[in-house]
Protein 1
Amino acid sequence: DIQMTQSPSTLSASVGDRVTITCRASQSISSWLAWYQQKPGKAPKLLIYKASSLESGVPSRFSGSGSGTEFTLTISSLQPDDFATYYCQQYNSYLWTFGQGTKVEIK
Amino acid sequence: EVQLVQSGAEVKKPGESLKISCKGSGYSFTSYWIGWVRQMPGKGLEWMGIIYPGDSESRYSPSFQGQVTISADKSISTAYLQWSSLKASDTAMYYCARGGGSPNRGFDSWGQGTLVTVSS
């Protein structure tokens, strides 16, 4: 199985901060990586697919980059609505896997 | 509008069987994968497996292989997740999600979740 490792596990930030979350794959997944946002009690929501493509309707302050084994999700200016947990997911292999999540908290 | 509507919350006893459902609408059900994702209380997302309703090909995470069965009835655009003998550790929220497409966007649409509680 391909393992996905996110860092950090928790991130404390203020409104307006630039935030970066990293996701590493245990082997190359090309660009087959998605990022999701989940708020408490809600289903996850797709933000980024194919490593850097912004899902329709998602604010442009969200961006993704990377290929191979190292990927990042960046929020250029953190907004109150962005405090949530973020997950990466690889869908390159026969079996798909999620990272363990990064909780973005209010500082 | 793409929609995935899941069946309601369930409360079961250990050893009982259960089948939960996920009905797709607003798109060609046989042209996309349907995946199942577990979220235990206070924990992260776990990819359980997926099925392609067009030909019923299914894939399972090793962690869930043999523990659950994923199936689909394309005539009614519905996918299922079932257990033959529940354990307390199966208590969790279960989500279905649509995957695949061209380009493949991962899981681009999600159901609302089905809460399964297993307790004696």
Protein 2
Amino acid sequence: AQTVTQSQPEMSVQEAETVTLSCTYDTSESDYYLFWYKQPPSRQMILVIRQEAYKQQNATENRFSVNFQKAAKSFSLKISDSQLGDAAMYFCAYRLIQGAQKLVFGQGTRLTINP
Amino acid sequence: DTEVTQTPKHLVMGMTNKKSLKCEQHMGHRAMYWYKQKAKKPPELMFVYSYEKLSINESVPSRFSPECPNSSLLNLHLHALQPEDSALYLCASSHVGLAGAGSGELFFGEGSRLTVL
């Protein structure tokens, strides 16, 4: 079974600083997606960034980037120039590529931005 | 249109009531999902529909009954619920593609907050 582990229940960062959220996963599959989702208090789950396992290049979306280490099964999220609107629960998630496969979530990291 | 719309946003029901949660998407997705989320916890998968057929049931109690009337709609029928069933219920949709096809992401609705008295 696939599992996703986020070892940091809570993180905080000063506004405009950089923060890195950790995620590791366990799978015996070779074709899969990894995601970071954000869930603000307003509760809608929003995709932050996506990585396909077959791509060696790390994904980047504006201030958000990942460090994908496939052999180590590690998928960390770096947020640069943190903004107050980045405050949320962040979930790392895994999904097989083929078919209608479920999204497996980590336990989440609550990120606080200090002004 | 990249939205998944869920109704109602809030629902309070007694243990003997029958109610339904509704979910709609118009992105042409052929996979739809129900997740249950307790406070400060990750979403837990309940059901997956693929091409309007139930493909995954995560051993959910029969008091929860899913229905997929067509490719755009997903319902969750509720009957004889328990107070511990109070939670946020999230609907999501995605493409069902070949390996490497599509974005792979799930699109989530805002959820229906259910309180069982």
Protein 3
Amino acid sequence: QSALTQPASVSGSPGQSISISCTGTSSDVGGYDYVSWYQQHPGKAPKLMIYDVSKRPSGVSNRFSGSKSGNTASLTVSGLQAEDEADYYCCSWAGSRFYVFGFGTKVTVV
Amino acid sequence: EVQLVESGGGLVQPGGSLRLSCAASGFTFSSCKFHWVRQAPGKGLEWVAYIDTSGNTIYYADSVKGRFTISRDSAKNSLYLQVTSLRAEDTAVYYCARECGEVYNFDLWGQGTLVTVSS
């Protein structure tokens, strides 16, 4: 399974907004509105932050938002906080291939 | 408490086998589908296997097909992954993850269990 393409790293200052892109193909990201995003702190399990492209689970800050255009999905974190420093992974339903994840993006709060 | 707890990882030689377990608590196990997702050291996440609520529908990633077997025991609220013919590239933290309802995401993950394949 080919992974989705994400930038290796993104950084921002406290209070700023950052966006992470996730590029796939028409067989995954572009073909379904089933993109999810996961936050992972070092040594911890992933945590669901966004599902179905732009929906937030209960308890997730509204500073996190998602969108999609064509074969590229995006996660935006607004009002960046120190606790947002983590790795972020996108994931898409891919039909017969089931699920495909992105390579991951390290977010640094400088 | 709603949680998933994995166990069974360890050091195994190439060609060896292990049985990973995932104990579920705090929710209705039989209502959820489950997955195994792995993460090699310093690498990203890779979906490995899926099992539906009945245990009758199962899918595997091509990288593990024929070597790994996913199963579940509703009486024990547990998910399993039998891993055989292990290779160095199977070294990873193995997470179990829940998918409840007609959704396409993993809303609950365990803390993971490390499998190290080395001679």
Protein 4
Amino acid sequence: QFVLTQPPSVSGAPGQRVTISCTGSNSNIGTNYAVHWYQQLPGTAPKLLIYDDISRPSGVPDRFSGSKSATSASLAISGLQAEDEADYYCQSYDSSLSGWAFGGGTKLTVL
Amino acid sequence: EVHLAESGGGLVQPGGSLRLSCAASGFTFNNYAMNWVRQAPGKGLQWLSIITGSGGNTYYADSVKGRFTISRDNSKKTLYLQMSSLRVEDTAIYYCVKARGMTYYNYHMDVWGNGTTVTVSS
């Protein structure tokens, strides 16, 4: 259903490091289209977290980092904090859709 | 401060129409492409449509092509989404989102409004 596949949920204890994967194909990430990540706290609008694979907007802590390889991308969150509990979405352009696609989202639970 | 404020949501019957508006402030509106993205209750994000800064080019997701029309009035710094032939599955929060990037295929969405809720029900 989604051209970008994310795990439905991940969890980690405070202080730990977690990663969220985003698996695409040759019509999106594999074509070297940029991958972007968004954080959506409960009851709020999404917020840009990582853009152009690895870049952080001003104000985003360096605990958040992005990477990309072949047809996949990952978001890593180190030093987990309670306030990181949110939904996370990856996004990229897809040439087969001729449009912009989001992954299905991953719910991060801080134990 | 960059700000986007959506309005126009509400309850509409299946088959009906609705026009959403998004007032922009804090940036040079006509320099940026703008998007509409929606989120159905309990679901993920879905990109719907984008319009270039000049308004000369528009693109749509297949799910809304032919039913929704994106437009903008740069003199009023306002983005619109005209929705017609609405279906129950169009029920969602609709976000107005500013695009940014060097090339269209690498656009990211750097500023989001708070959204306006559209409910399609009889």
